[in-house]
Write a structure and sequence with these properties.
Helix 12 (395-407) runs parallel beside helix 14 (426-438). Helices cover 38% and strands 23% of the residues. The strands form three sheets. Strands 4, 5, 6, 7, 9 and 10 form a six-stranded mixed sheet that branches. By secondary structure, the chain is α+β, with helices and mostly antiparallel strands. The longest helix is centred in the middle third of the chain and has 22 residues, at 238-259.
Length: 472
Amino acid sequence: MNKTLFNICVAAIIAVPAATALPVDVKQTGKAVERSENTLYVNTDIDVSGFKRGSNREVWIHPVIVNGNDSVALPGVIVAGRNRYYQALRHDIPQKEGITLYRSSESLVSVPYQAQVPYQEWMNGSVLLLHVDHKGCCGDDLDEAVTVPLTSIEFAPRKFVPAFNWVVPTAEKVKHRELKGSAFIDFPVNKIVIYPEYRRNTVELAKIRATIDSVHQDKDITITALSIKGFASPEGPWNNNVRLAKGRTAALKTYVEKLYNFAPDFITTSYDPEDWGGLRAYVENSNIANRDGILALIDSSLEPDAKDHKIKATYPDQYAFLLAEVYPALRHSDYKIDYTIKSYTDVNEILALVKTRPQNLSLQEFFLAAKAVEQGSDEYNEIFETAVRMYPESDVANLNAANVAMSRGDYILAEKYLGRCGADDSRAIYGRGILAALQGKYSAARELFERAAMLRVADAPAAIEQIDKLMR
């Protein structure tokens, strides 16, 4: 007998041992086995060129799907010589047997085979078998009937296929940015002169210089304003605190002016003689004893000196703690740098900046970079993840980063990004629907997609339809 060759595109080929080889060659024309929601389809060609020819010979071919104790027979095929062909027609064999009859001839090389049956869950993981009988003039078996495994039938589990909504950021006409910081410069008691080596001043002054240098040394950045505001703590006379806050702020301005070639009066200053706001914030967020009483005095209409004296007299233990542990931090200098950044249009330059100076890029420039690389690649994902690190409060950055996280299967990170977006943001609602669907939470996903559809998210109706199919 000729060796049999079976090709089925949806599953691994099962090799047929030489001892069971048949003169039958099943060749693929498109997908040989596939399924829709409720139907299994078999569609292939059976090569009969190797069959023995004879007027009184016929071959019966019966496909059957088997999985353990479950099975279903598919319609069969007869390839018959002249005498057997006409006899089958006289006895109405095709109609009675539900079988397709072909007349054998030298020109008959292959016969098409198509069948469909209702799909059942047990069919996933089943085997498609081929039963072949060679018969003679009176229906006698000419050769031993053979059952050959055609192919295993394996379908990937049905799952939700997301249509991510990538949000295109709006381009900025001018890229305005600002940097803020606080320095805690130590001054000797009642002094307004900066001693760079005094206590922690080396560290605090270096912090100010590093902040300014981060933008001042970048050729693509223009500093447009620099402001300093000095604060003193509430203890001591108000007038003396005014002198200290004003003088120490001026001293820091002079120190910075000597380091950089800023235009005269480029640095603006202001001061707050006593940082009652800072003190209140600390007390409100603490579990200090007599917390409410201290807050009531801070919020009272007493003059600053009287207020400080009243807290000290009424709550001496708590006042001593505040004086030692909290007041020093209320003596600080806040600074802010306003600047603009050059806009970039060259994609290659932008891609380089993603790795070297991502802080210079706008969200729209990050998006341009992403469009220039392969979607779904490591570089593509890294661009959006860098963008959200630079703009952690941006809904656009978080929505796109959530898409990246979901596409990689990192659902915990995706939930974090989506959690930063507004609860009523239609794009975030749709994204949360995708996340729920990918996690198999179809009921929750459907509710979210329905909300998104009501808010006119274009892809939401298709997502609902897909969920409905998965929930059947």
